[in-house]
Write a structure and sequence with these properties.
alpha/beta
Length: 1167
């Protein structure tokens, strides 16, 4: 291979010494080549040869560091091949692995481990991954924010901040804003000092033009006026090309320039406000213009100048006195923000130290503290480190920030031995708070390497591109010249910065650069809309097809040949949604393609098919996996054949339907035969069969008795809730039976089951007796009291008066109210205790069980029954629905009843559940309420649930009108007009989320009772989605008995199953209030041997160790189950692909369903 000859600029990069060197290296300019050659020029210096590990080489990514190390090693080997006797070069092949070639964070970590005692850091500290650090940060910030809210009465500044900066349905946007500010502050060398300066800046706002705010905007105004003046002067030069244009337009443009120059002379805020330029006036029409291009360009320059002035003048919206008053109003909010950030930083740092963690920002700031003293001078350690390196080489320097710049400065020799390489046009990490201004400041201030004096910093431009054709570079230069003019992107792209072709290519007839504009049917389509993607994809595919069919010529190793599919690459902004559209369009054109989305091997179709096949071999009763495997190329079953197995056989799972099918067809038969050879699924053993039988017998008896009573009195439907709770107790009984049989196989199952039921019922009765001392009174007196009540209720029922029965139930509520303390711990409404008592007495004495049920059951019914009359309940629901209908009609007719030019709607659905509404009303209005009494509450709830905002934005637009002057000449004039844009947003906070805002713990307990029983009136709103949730028992599931040998898991499961059937209550964290997902898991593990407090789903994940081999008792986490970042749902893994979690209600769930699989995040093992 021929030796690469360096250009003059490249050779200068390799050889130039004597001071700090900044290299502005364009894309494809051979940056890596010259960097390696520069290093080896030091190594092969005949006078003072260096070792490769005497250099500090900083790259931006680990991959870049590894690549650069490889290039250096390869170049050493290449040179050693021509100088095999060179012992110094031989040693470099070993020393290359000692060289500090790393990211800045890896370099910082190395220093901190070496000097950990100076910074009081544990030597075994760990660098947190970004996702881990983000999760801890979010949790700590939420806790800090909650602490501030609790002390809000004493936090005046925080209250001001929350009021002014908080917006939206919750604190998510406020959290995002605060954390964004925190990230920005952490990029400062002295975080505390910077915040003090920021706070002090708001203390000096008068005179306004001398305040930081005023200085900034006055400078912006002057910069804008300078731009406008230059634009108008350019326009006036264009007018001179045509006498008519100069005659007609000249006076107007000259007057406009005078306006700009007059405003530029103002040095005070009030002066700038008083002399604002509202417009430039109209320009006369010119019909006989000879140079239309000059005319159009001049008009465009004038328009751009005016728009720029209008933009900056928006800051000058009032006189200085008014603006100063507005700034004073924001001062407390800024102080509150800074107080919150300081408290958060302290708590966040403390938590990371507890975990022996450092995040990337900690690495930088701890290194700064190591290298600098408190007064800002270099430390002894910094001077010691700087002596270790001949030169500091920093790649991708344009993506450094202020903190990193301080580190590079500290470890260098007064900045003299720094070699900095970058390209400001390639600064793509501003979202990571990179500051390309650091690069630009040096670029503007450093002298050219040819003119720099000794020890003076210098710069070299590498503008020759060895990667692209001349035509491609010309197109890139045009784009950069237009958008980089020294303002927004800060770099002025002049002749010196333009890319130059370093290679020549054979000429072809095909165009090198094409720009296609596609006209859409919907011109206002969103940038990432599916319609736009499909249209673009089809166009690109057809264009590639034409290139292939026409045999477009391309260059390959100096020769010309027809283009092939593999020569073409499609670059996309995102690989999330776009690739599917493009691959589909390419396939339709017969073009093969592949897309590397960075997926795991297990995300591929082949792996998913294999996984589904393995799952059904293990258990063919998984319908989703079974059908997916059959439809795959492995079995090749068509959709028609798959459907045949379900025709006429609706019951059972798909595998059973397949076995029952008389004529299966060739492929289905082959699939059945393959599966038949596998191990059949395990049948229930004797323990499970006996346990199910025993449980079913008792449950059947209870259900039958309750059904008989329900036919007589609708008020006793609350007892049916006891039946549901009884099923939970039976599951415990079944598990106890299994354990007893394992320990003593010869003992009878009935004896073990009876012993369990009796022990459980006795315990629950003792708890009830502690709360109700009257239960310990004379047994005969208690018996007769209960008997009299039963007699009264039966007479009421026989009279057929459902209304009277409800009055009876309402009368008992007074007694039930005395049991609130007990109810709070059992939000299914004392039903679990009642069910266990009922089961005990059914097994011992039917008559005494009915006596006990008569007393306690009536209290439970009263405590869980809606207290108001049907007409008031239905009236309240109708009134609320009427308000919703009125709101819906208002939105539906919005455009016809308002007079704006443009509308944008962002509307949540309008809906609520009536049982949630009536349960809230019944809690907030204790006792029986009427429609008139709750009217105000209904309006309050409606205003809290639905938040309607209507914002109107006024844009000044211009239209061109043709007018006729007094001489009959037509002329054009730009006429301003207001364009009104209305943004309508409706936010539905969800009625079920309001109880947490409106109620205390005791009220939440009563709300949970009402929701668990539906007020004992499931007949009121039969269309409600809650009817089936709580009137049907949760799906039963028996955890394999062998898993219960683990005492820790048995304790977790025993606690978790107590709450099966409990309703999901947003924010709930105890049996008193019921639970949400994280509240349920926190409660269970806190009562099973841990003490972690009340954690959110993300917090629970943070305390766990991720595992890919879950076992019963581990936690399982999900993401994306609702609109939040990170972990959003969690449950407890019980083995065999099952979990118990706070769904709605708390129940078991199969993790192998498509829903849970699509949202699965990770398994975690508790500490």
């Amino acid at each position: 291979m021929a030796e690469v000859k360096l250009t003059r600029a490249q050779q200068a990069v390799v050889e130039n010494r004597g001071g700090a060197l900044l290299v502005s290296a364009e894309a494809g300019s051979g940056k890596k080549k010259v960097l390696v050659d520069r290093l080896l020029s030091y190594v092969e210096d005949p006078i003072d040869p260096a070792n490769i590990d005497e250099f500090l080489i900083i790259t931006y990514t680990k991959a870049a560091a590894s690549e650069l190390r490889g290039k250096i090693s390869a170049e050493i080997s290449k040179r050693l091949a021509s100088k095999p006797e060179n012992r110094h070069l031989q040693r470099q092949l070993t020393r290359i692995h000692l060289a500090q070639i790393s990211t800045v964070h890896a370099f910082c970590a190395m220093l901190l481990r070496r000097y950990c005692t100076l910074r009081d850091l544990p030597p075994d500290f760990r660098v947190a991954e970004q996702t881990e650090a983000d999760a801890i940060r979010l949790e700590i910030f939420q806790n800090t924010l909650e602490d501030f809210y609790k002390d809000r009465a004493n936090q005046v500044d925080f209250s001001a901040m929350a009021d002014q900066l908080g917006f939206g349905r919750d604190d998510r946007r406020l959290i995002d804003l605060c954390l964004s500010c925190y990230d920005e502050v952490r990029c400062r060398r002295d975080m505390g000092g910077w915040m003090k300066q920021a706070e002090a800046a708001y203390a000096r706002i008068s005179p306004l033009e001398e305040s930081p705010w005023g200085v900034f905007w006055m400078k912006e105004l002057q910069d804008t006026l300078r731009f406008a003046s230059e634009s108008l002067q350019k326009a006036m030069m264009l007018l001179r090309r045509d006498e008519t244009l100069e005659e007609k337009y000249g006076p107007v443009f000259k007057e406009n320039l005078a306006q700009v120059q007059a405003l530029a002379e103002e040095t005070t805020w009030d002066g700038a406000f008083a002399h604002k330029i509202p417009d430039f006036g109209r320009i006369p029409g010119v019909r006989d213009c000879k140079d239309e291009a000059a005319k159009a360009r001049a008009q465009k320059l004038r328009k751009d100048a005016l728009e720029a002035i209008r933009d900056v003048q928006r800051a000058f919206y009032a006189e200085a006195e008014t603006v100063e008053a507005d700034l004073k109003k924001t001062t407390p909010a800024i102080r509150g923000l800074l107080q919150l950030l300081r408290a958060f930083d302290e708590a966040f740092t403390k938590e990371k130290r507890r975990r022996k963690l450092l995040d990337f920002s900690d690495l930088e700031h701890e290194t700064i503290a190591l290298l600098y003293t408190k007064d800002g001078k270099l430390s002894r350690t910094a001077r010691e480190i700087s002596e270790e390196y001949r030169e500091i080489l920093v790649d991708e320097y344009q993506d450094s920030n202020e903190v990193q710049e301080c580190i590079f400065e500290a470890v260098s020799k007064n900045g003299q031995n720094r070699f900095l390489v970058g390209d400001v046009k390639q600064s793509i990490y501003r979202f990571r708070l990179a500051d390309p201004g650091i690069f630009l400041q040096k670029y503007e201030s450093y002298a050219s390497y040819e003119a720099a004096k000794d020890a003076e910093p210098r710069k070299i431009l590498l503008s020759d591109n060895f990667r692209s054709r001349r035509e491609v570079l010309a197109a890139a230069n045009d784009v950069f010249s237009l958008c980089m003019q020294g303002e927004s992107l800060e770099l002025r792209y002049g002749e010196a910065e333009k890319l130059r072709a370093g290679l020549s290519y054979p000429q072809t007839d095909t165009p090198k650069v094409e720009l296609h504009c596609i006209e859409l049917d919907k011109p206002d389509a969103d940038e990432q809309s599916p319609e736009k993607r499909e249209v673009e994809a089809r166009f690109v595919a057809s264009r590639i097809r034409k290139m292939l069919d026409d045999g477009m010529q391309v260059t390959d190793a100096g020769t010309i040949r027809p283009v092939r599919m593999g020569d073409i690459v499609i670059l996309l902004r995102s690989l999330k949604e776009n690739p599917a559209s493009y691959q589909k369009a390419l396939a339709q054109q017969g073009i093969a393609s592949q897309c590397d989305r960075g997926e795991s091997l297990f995300d591929t179709t082949e792996a998913q098919v294999l996984l589904a096949t393995l799952k059904i071999i293990d258990n063919p009763h998984r319908d989703v996996d079974f059908v997916a495997a059959l439809a795959s190329p492995v079995f090749g079953v068509s959709a028609e054949e798959l459907a045949r197995a379900r025709v006429g056989i609706r019951k059972g799972d798909y595998y059973e339907s397949l076995l029952a099918l008389d004529t299966r067809g060739e492929k289905l038969e082959a699939a059945k035969d393959k599966l038949a050879k596998q191990k059949p699924p395990k049948k229930p053993g004797p323990v499970r069969r006996v346990g199910r039988a025993a449980g079913g017998t008792v449950h059947g008896f209870v259900h039958g008795k309750l059904f008989e009573v329900e036919q007589e009195n609708v008020g006793t439907e609350g007892a049916h809730r006891s039946e549901l709770a009884g099923e939970t107790a039976l599951r415990h009984g079944s598990r106890f039976v299994k354990k007893k049989i394992r320990e003593h196989p010869a003992k009878a199952v009935q004896r073990a089951e009876s012993k369990y039921i009796k022990a459980t019922a006795d315990h629950q009765f003792r708890v009830a007796a502690q709360e109700h001392p009257e239960l310990e009174k004379n047994a005969w007196k208690r018996f007769w009291q209960k008997r009299q009540y039963r007699k009264q209720a039966r007479q009421t029922a026989r009279a057929g008066a459902a209304k009277a029965a409800k009055q009876t139930a309402a009368a008992t509520e007074r007694a039930g109210a005395q049991a609130v303390g007990f109810i709070k711990r059992h939000p299914v409404g004392v039903l679990l205790a009642l069910a266990c008592v009922l089961l005990l007495f059914i097994m011992q004495s039917c008559s005494s069980s009915l006596v006990m049920f008569g007393n306690s059951g009536a209290g439970a019914v009263g405590a869980t029954t809606y207290p108001s009359k049907d007409e008031d309940i239905l009236g309240a629901e109708a009134a609320y629905a009427d308000m919703e209908a009125e709101l819906q009609n208002y939105l539906d007719t919005y455009e016809s009843t308002h007079d704006y030019d443009e509308y944008h709607f962002d509307l949540d659905g309008i809906e609520h559940d009536p049982y949630v509404l009536i349960s809230i009303l019944s809690v907030l209005h204790e006792g029986e309420w009427t429609l008139a009494q709750v009217q105000g509450t209904l309006e309050m709830l409606f205003d809290r649930q639905y938040i309607l905002t209507e914002d109107v934005v006024v844009e000044v637009r211009y239209r061109t009108e043709t007018r006729t002057d007094s001489e009959g000449n037509d002329y054009e004039v730009e006429v301003p007009y207001n364009w009104y844009i209305c943004y309508v947003t409706l936010e539905n906070k969800n009625l079920s989320h309001l109880p947490l805002e409106l109620m205390g713990e005791e009220e939440l307990a009563r709300y949970a009772l009402y929701m668990s029983s539906l007020g004992n009136r499931p007949d009121l709103f039969p269309e409600s989605g809650y009817v089936d949730k709580y009137t049907k028992p949760p799906a039963d599931y028996d955890v394999p008995e062998e898993y219960l040998d683990d005492e820790t898991f048995a304790a977790i499961l025993g606690e978790a199953e107590k709450y099966l059937g409990y309703p999901y209550v947003w924010g709930g964290s105890s049996p008193a209030t019921s639970f949400d997902c994280s509240g349920f898991v926190s409660w269970v593990i806190n009562h099973s041997g841990w003490d972690v407090g009340r954690l959110g789903a993300q917090g629970l994940y943070n305390i766990c160790t991720p595992t890919s081999a879950p076992r019963p008792g581990d936690l399982v986490f999900f993401e994306g189950t609702y609109d939040t970042s990170g972990v959003s749902h969690c449950g407890i893994y019980v083995g065999d692909g099952m979990m118990i979690h706070a769904g709605d209600p708390i129940s078991y769930a199969n993790l192998n369903t498509s829903y849970w699989q699509s949202h699965f995040y990770a398994y975690g093992r508790l500490p």
